[in-house]
Amino acid sequence: MPYFDTASAAPLHPVARQALLAALDEGWADPARLYREGRRARLLLDAAREAAAEAVGCRPDELVFTSSGTAAVHAGIAGALSGRRRVGRHLVLSAVEHSSVLHSAAAHEAAGGSFTDVPVERSGAVDPAAYAGALRADTALACLQSANHEVGTEQPVAEVAALCAEAGVPLLVDAAQSLGWGPVAGRWSLLTASAHKWGGPAGVGLLAVRKGVRFAPQGPAGERESGRAPGFENLPAIVAAAASLRAVREEAAAEAVRLRALVGRIRSVVAERVGDVEVVGDPERRLPHLVTFSCLYVDGETLLHELDRHGFSVSSGSSCTSSTLEPSHVLKAMGVLSEGNVRVSLPMGTAEADVDRFLDVLPGLVAEVRERLGAPVSAPPSPAPVASLVVDALGRRCPIPVIELAKVIGEVPVGATVTVLADDEAARLDIPAWCEMREQEYVGEEPADRGSAYVVRRLS
Asked: Which residues contact 335 (CB under 8 A, 6 or more apart)?
């Protein structure tokens, strides 16, 4: 069964498995002790730190191991904000950061601080000039991911880092998705990552803090990992994480070329065979293994279940695949279609035949889901035109409001409007996206007794 969700968790690398089993025998003792077993454990820990630091591009004494990538983000943001509290309590981040960064920002705001979300372009990337414009005299820290976890777009980290350095603001880079493919360029100040994203075991994160960055660890003080990650080190997992990071880096150059070609094939074939689809994210400046697309008139959860039944494990950023009514904050910030969203992230070693079978299966499954939902196959013939129409989609979830809009747009004359009443939050994103794909005019959102009224003017 092809596993196409390595952006969530990569399969355990064979080198990680070997290193983990060996370290279970040799690295079980306390590395802080001076007896033989402790010294042996300490040697393993030091070697793992050196290997990880080499991959990150920092000094070994600048890097600590944490219990997860999320813990690294939380510790990094809290420590940097506290260390620079005399400068101010303002935080800058992009609108498409991982939820761990957003949660840290929310906690900071609840404690009396403030933060600014920097918007992104439709590709998902920030404009460095816009990011620099958000920096203030009281900005204590800036955060920017190296590459987006939902759409694969790479961020201009080097440019932003240079601008932050000019402003005297440290930049924390969340490199969880990209570190397995190579080091992060630029003058970053702090960096975080997570081992299970590159084929290491879960439960190991990295936090690098450059020398000279003011940093004050938060929470009860600890004696281990420079006081920045309390608790006994999970040494076997740390050894496996460092070993697998070195191994994947050795394979990365060749695999990046091969997987980029496979992802390029997915991007082009999906657009050709599926129809009414938006392939999102930057087509060039992107991770080599990840592609995301959204299908009009499709219930994302149903589509993912159908793909699973046919042997493909993929994920989604669509609101229809989770318990929340909110669409993905990443897709929302980009202003792209969220319904019927599919994220494909290929692990190293993915066979070309598996990708070809995925592309053979997908169009038929999308068509089946659309048929079940009563989506229009083609534009219906226009009856006698009416001045305007109101579509009541209250209480109905994505993609139904957009399907109902598509069914009736041909019933009004060019220049007339269709008003869609909807209380699903995803409609706020998907109706404008449909208008752009269909070259119709999105007039705007108006208040309604329930939900919102979305007004669309027919242009053709």
From this structure: 122, 429, 432, 433
Give the three-class secondary structure for 187. Answer: coil
Give the pLDDT confidence score for residue 317 in this predicted structure. 72
For 248, other C-beta atoms within 10 Å of its C-beta total 22
3-state secondary structure of 269: helix
320 is catalytic: yes
Q: Which residue has the tokens 């990992």?
A: 225
Burial 389-428 (b: 16+ CB within 10 A, else e): bebebbebbbbbbbbbbbbbbbbbeeebbbbbbbbbbbbb
Digit-coded pLDDT (tens) for 328-359: 999 999 999 998 999 999 999 999 999 999 99
Judge whether 201 and 20 are in contact, CB under 8 Å.
yes
92, 155, 331 from 96: Cα distances, Å? 12, 10, 8
Q: What whole-number distance in Å separates Cα of residue 48 and Cα of residue 243?
A: 7
Amino acid, res. 125: A
- Chain Cα centroid distance, residue 240: 25
Place of tokens 């109706």: 431
Q: 373: closest CA among 264, 300, 427? A: 300
- Tens-place pLDDT, residues 178-190: 999 999 999 999 9
Q: What angle do CA 129, 131, 136 make, to 5 degrees?
A: 110
Model confidence, pTM = 0.88
Query: Residue 216 contacts by C-beta under 8 Å, 6 or more apart in sequence?
Result: 79, 82, 83, 85
Contacts of 453 (CB under 8 A, 6+ apart): 419, 420, 421, 445, 446, 447
- Rounded distance between C-alpha atoms, residue 236 and residue 23, angstroms: 5
> How would you classify residue 191: left for phi > 0, otherwise alpha for psi between -120 and 50, otherwise beta?
beta
SS3 209: strand
pLDDT digits 0-9 by tens, 253-286 = 999 999 999 999 999 999 999 989 999 999 999 9
Is residue 418 within 8 A of residue 440, CB to CB? The reply is no
* pLDDT tens track for 351-398: 999 999 999 999 999 999 999 999 887 544 444 455 678 889 999 988
Query: CB neighbours (10 Å) of residue 122?
Result: 13
Which candidate in 143, 320, 398, 435 is catalytic?
Answer: 320
Are the beta carbons of 146 and 154 closer than 8 angstroms? Answer: yes
For 392, phi then psi, to 5°, come to -95, 105
Is there a contact between 67 and 300 (Cβ–Cβ < 8 Å)? no
